[in-house]
Amino acid sequence: MTAPLLTRRLRPVDLYIVDAVLAVAVGGLLCPYAALESPLHGGVREPLWVSVLVGMVLGLPLAVRRRWPIPVAVVISGSTAATLVTGVIPNFAAAAPAVAIGLSFYTVAVSTTTRRSLLSAAGCLALVSVALVLTAGDLWSRTGAVVYATVMIAPAWVIGWLLRERRALASRQSDQLVRQAATEERLRVARELHDVVAHTLSLIVVKAAVANHVAEADPREAGAALRVIEETGRTALTDVRRVLGVLREGTPYAPMPGLDELPVLAQQAAIGGVDVRLDVRREEPAGTVPESVGLAVYRIVQEAVTNVVKHAAPAACRATVTVTPDEVRVEVTDDGRRPVLIGGEGHGLIGMRERVALHGGEFRAGPRSDGGFAVTASLPYRVAT
C-alpha cells in the first residue's frame, strides 16, 4: 500500500505546500547570517528584527516560485545585491543567499522558454556581480567575486534547462508513440475492412451475375441468388459493425472470428462456385490459440479463398490448418487457372503478409508447379499460463 503513495505524482497543492515549507526553512537559515556581528569585516550592526526581515525577504519568495518564476528570481537577486552592498550580509558570508538564488533560477530555467530564462539569468547575474564587486577590495577579489556570482547562478540554471529539454524530448517521444499507435490502429482497421468487404463483394458479384443470367429463363434460380446476396450482405454489415465497434469504448460487439468460424467460411465459398475442403488438425498437446492469432488465421484463409473465387472459380480448393503447441500452420491450395496479373502483389497478399509478419511468422504465396496457386503461412504463439 505504501509503494503507490511514494511513487505517485504530487498534486499542485502538494507542490505549493512543499515550496512554502522550503521558503520558511531557507529564510530561517539566512537569518543567522544577516544577524552576524561583523563590524570588523565591513558589516553593520543592525537590529535583530532587520536581520529576520532580510532572511524572510530572501527566503519567502520561494513559496511562489512556480507561479511567478522570473519575478521571484529578480526579487531574490535584487535583495541579495542590496544586502551585500549595505553590509547586512557580510561579503565573506555571500554564500548564504546561494541556496535561494539557485532554487529561483532552477525554477526559471525549468518553467520558462530558453530565451526568457537566459535573459533573466544574465540580468540578475550582472546585478549580483556588481554588488560583489562594490564590496570587494582589490582587483583579484573583484574578479573572484564575479566568478563566484557566476557559480551561484549558472549551475542551477543549466540543471533546470537540461531538465526542461529532457521533459520536452520525453513529451515529443510520447506524442510520437501516440501517433504511431493511432496509425497502426488505422492500418489494422483498414486490413479488417478490406478483408470483409473484398470477400463479401466477391460473393455478391458472383451471385448477382448468376441472377442476371437466369432472371428470365429461371426466376426461381434468380430468386435463390438474390436471397444469397441478401444473406451475404447482412453478414458483411455485421462484420463491419464488429470491426468498427472496437474503436468505441463500451460498445458491445461479438467476438472476432477465429478457428471455430472456418467451416462457415468454407460454406460461403461454395456459394461462389469454389469447393473448399477444410481440414483443421490439432496436434496434442495443443494449447488455446490466442484470439489475435485465430483472427489472423481466419483472415488469411478468407483472403486466400476469396482470391480463388475472384480469379480461379470454378475450382477445387483445399485449406489445411494445423495447430501445434507453439504455432499454427496454414496451407490453402487450389487447382484453378488464373489470369496473368501484372504489377506484383495485390492488397490481399500484402495484407496477409503483414498479418503474418505482425506475429513473427513466415509467409509464402505463388503458383504451384502442377497448376493452381498455393498460400502457406506459419504463425507462432505462446500459450498463456
TrEMBL record:
Highest taxon above the source species: Bacteria
Keyword vocabulary terms for this entry: ATP-binding, Kinase, Membrane, Nucleotide-binding, Phosphoprotein, Transferase, Transmembrane, Transmembrane helix, Two-component regulatory system
Catalytic activity: ATP + protein L-histidine = ADP + protein N-phospho-L-histidine
InterPro entries, per database record: DUF7134, HATPase_C_sf, HATPase_dom, Sensor_HK_TwoCompSys, Sig_transdc_His_kin_sub3_dim/P
Membrane-spanning residues: 15-36, 48-64, 84-106, 118-139, 145-163
E.C. designation(s): 2.7.13.3
Residue span(s) of domain Histidine kinase/HSP90-like ATPase: 292-383
PANTHER family: NITRATE/NITRITE SENSOR PROTEIN NARX-RELATED (PTHR24421), NITRATE_NITRITE SENSOR PROTEIN NARQ (PTHR24421:SF10)
Name used for this protein in its record: histidine kinase
Organism listed in the record: Micromonospora jinlongensis
Lineage, highest ranks first: Bacteria, Bacillati, Actinomycetota, Actinomycetes, Micromonosporales
